[in-house]
Amino acid sequence: MTISYWSPALETAAPEEIRRLQEDGLRHTLRTALRVPHYRGRFAEAGVDVAAVRTVDDLQAIPFMDKAQLRELQPWGVQAAARADIVRLNATTGTTGLPCNIAFTRQDLDNIGELGARNLTAMGVRRDDIAWQCYGYGLWIGGSSLDRAYEQAGVTAFPAGPGRTSLAIQRLRDLGVTVISCTPTFGLLLIERAREAGIDPAADWRLRIGIFGGETMSRAAMARLSGSMPPGFRPHNTYGTTELGGPFVAGTCEYSREQGTFHVWSDHYLIEIIDPESGKTITEPDVLGELVVTTLRREGSPMVRWRTRDLTSWAPDAFDCPCGRRGHPKISWISGRSDDVLKVRGSLVMPSQVEDVVSAMAGIGAGWQLVVDKDPDGLRATEATVVVEIADDLRETAVPELAGRLRDRLGIRLPVVAVGHRELPRYEGKARRVLTLEEFAAVAPLVDLGAATTPVTT
Ligand SMILES: [Zn+2]
User: Fold this and answer.
1) What is the model's pTM?
2) Residues 6+ apart with CB under 8 A from 120
3) Which domains does the chain have, with CATH numbers?
4) 131 in helix, strand or coil?
5) In 3-state terms, what secondary structure has residue 291?
6) Which long-range contacts (CB under 8 A, 24 or more apart) does 437-445 make?
7) What percentage of the chain reaches a pLDDT higher than 70?
8) Alpha carbon separation from 248 to 112, 185, 237 (Å, rounded)
9) Cα–Cα 20 to 30 A to 46, which of 83, 153, 168, 358?
10) How far lies 159's CA from each of 119, 144, 187, 242, 317, in Å?
11) Rounded Cα–Cα distance for residues 430 and 402 (Å)
12) Where are the alpha helices (DSSP H) in 73-130?
């Protein structure tokens, strides 16, 4: 396996050296944060003497920052740089509430290019690659960040954005495109559209690397996507958010890709994993918790102990990857958001667990939904139905098998409803897999959920 680095000295620096860089970065961030009235107030309220914070361990004294606080600061958000030095504002996708604006200085944008080029190089992308870029543009930071990364790495890129599927499936073939960046959902949609148009992705495309991100993805879903691509195709995963300054907080290397983990770029981001209920730090490997991030180099909108709501865990060999990036610890791919966990008949259900089971089953179409009956008291869900596309002739065996696998994985039975090909919605960006009964009735008016073929008994 060839290992390549974009910034060899920083990527292979020893953990102790990275820690020194982090402590410099932390002091810089806290000094910068003091320019923001919100942070000044919060630090004073918590009785934190910021000047006394010297090491990473001192971070524990500083209060968390969450989405509700960020929303209160809108429309300008956290602004630590002078307006004259801010060259761009991006906004969060606003899947929950109004979008929040995040500011960038020129240096912040340069850092996106640097981290992006590191990610691409670690994934095996080279200057002679041709890339089809389908992350979204507009206010969202995904598309423009990938453009910067490709430019920095010297890759020929088409900023296609999402949509234009009929053009994409032909251009991927005609141009011999070798790299694609998109949400996993959009990747699966392209495969489906290609087949419908008589194009066989495995034979007619030349794709060798996929850069997937922007939504959670199980390893089973990743394997399913790769199985339809040309032989030797390698899926990679990238993680980041607008609040944290872009999509390159973490990315896979050739080893972590197979492990379902990625490296966090630790000279730019200081991470913690906490119990979302108690706020206590988790240090053991493989224990799921919420990712908390402090930015170390951001100038426009620095984030201090930002609660991402994304769930992850430390990899068992977090500081010991064969790729040599030992100072940049590995965490598991994001398995969901703490807000997404459903409580169904007293049991916790994560939509990503359902995705894992559905994706691993042969004969199921690209669309699937989890339809929940919301508890009027607000405790998430009282009932959840899995709706999947299965061909008529397979239903008799596939439906009970799927129900059985879901029960084994979740510990409770969920009713399963089978529908025909293309009866469920398709998504071009982030999929919305969990819908309420009303939302589902609006997008799939012909589907009768009373047709559940699995009796509901726990
Ligand atoms: Zn690695």
Assistant:
1) 0.84
2) 6, 149, 150, 153, 155, 211
3) 103-337 (3.40.50.12780), 342-451 (3.30.300.30)
4) strand
5) strand
6) 437/371, 437/372, 437/373, 437/374, 440/369, 440/371, 440/387, 444/369, 444/387, 444/419
7) 96
8) 7, 19, 10
9) 83
10) 18, 9, 15, 19, 36
11) 24
12) 106-122
CA of residue 373 to ligand 1 center, whole Å? 42
From the CA of 440, how far away is ligand 1's center (Å)?
Answer: 41
Q: Which residue bears the tokens 């944060």?
A: 33
* Structure tokens that stand for 414 in this block: 């969920």
Q: What is the spatial distance between Cα 213 and Cα 184, in angstroms, rounded to a whole number?
A: 7
Q: Which helix (H) or strand (E) holds 357?
A: helix 351-360
Instruction: State in Å: Cα 282 to ligand 1 middle.
Output: 22
End-to-end Cα distance, the chain:
48
Q: Across the strands, what pairs with 101?
A: 91
- Distance (angstroms) between ligand 1 centre and the Cα of 233 equals 19
- Residue 379: pLDDT over 60: no
pLDDT in tens, 316-369: 999 999 999 999 999 999 988 887 778 788 777 888 889 889 988 888 888 899
Q: Ligand 1 centre and the CA of 223: distance in Å? A: 20
Distances (CA, A) of 158 to 133, 226, 401, 427: 6, 22, 42, 21
Q: Are 352 and 346 in contact (CB under 8 A)?
A: no
CA distance 192 to 66: 38
* Tokens describing residue 295: 């930015």
